[in-house]
């Protein structure tokens, strides 16, 4: 991996705590897009944390991520040409390599731009069919250690990635996952979340990588617990019981991540997994593709409709109660981190 150029090269002023809270936390890894969105020899413009970036994949499959801004006149590199191991700006032909170094200025060979790293580049990794990138600030350009979610590295876990983009602030998408009680109401008609009590008590239980938010009086019946994990990237793990009609493999798990696109849009990543082996794996995959996947999209659509219908100031005009402890804890955590990053900047 190539160390990233500080993000300050793409911005005029350091972001405030409100900016960071609205557009996404720095100094950690974020999912960007599914890997299939960038084919070998292709380029794709993406927005992450409110900034424009270019993903391009070399013909050998290696992936690079650059600020979508030519160092010459600021034209979008994403409008340029893919030259295998570099990109040529459409405006004046300036060529930029995968690490952000200007390799050629065709209009003026020997120009002092050549050989200089003038475009911000980010470390990238691909896992579970998704592209992850590290977004550091000027004080933290080197990527932090990334411990990947267990179900995405466990050979006994078989996962399907589901990706969608919602017109909601990124925090709303995470808060939705830290709110298990909505499963008994919003998703009551689901084939997996119809059972169990509609009343509950919750508790927060600390872990070495984050915290559990879980029901104290019900387990293994509905959406009864969720764990927030902070391991270089933020992700959640949760489990939902499965009826026998869904095939072998025990409980159905979900690993969730979000990509803060900008203040109003979020990319949601859900890996739906089960721990299965041998013939059970084949049965699970067949049932998922032919029957279950469509039902899961219906549940995801219910979340999207609800969150997109909420007003922009929804979190400013609330009356919270005990079931919201997980959300309150999450907000305090993220707000404190945003303030720390703004102060350091």
From TrEMBL:
It is an enzyme of class 1 (oxidoreductase). Its EC number is 1.14.13.-. Keywords: Dioxygenase, Oxidoreductase. This is Aromatic ring-hydroxylating dioxygenase subunit alpha.
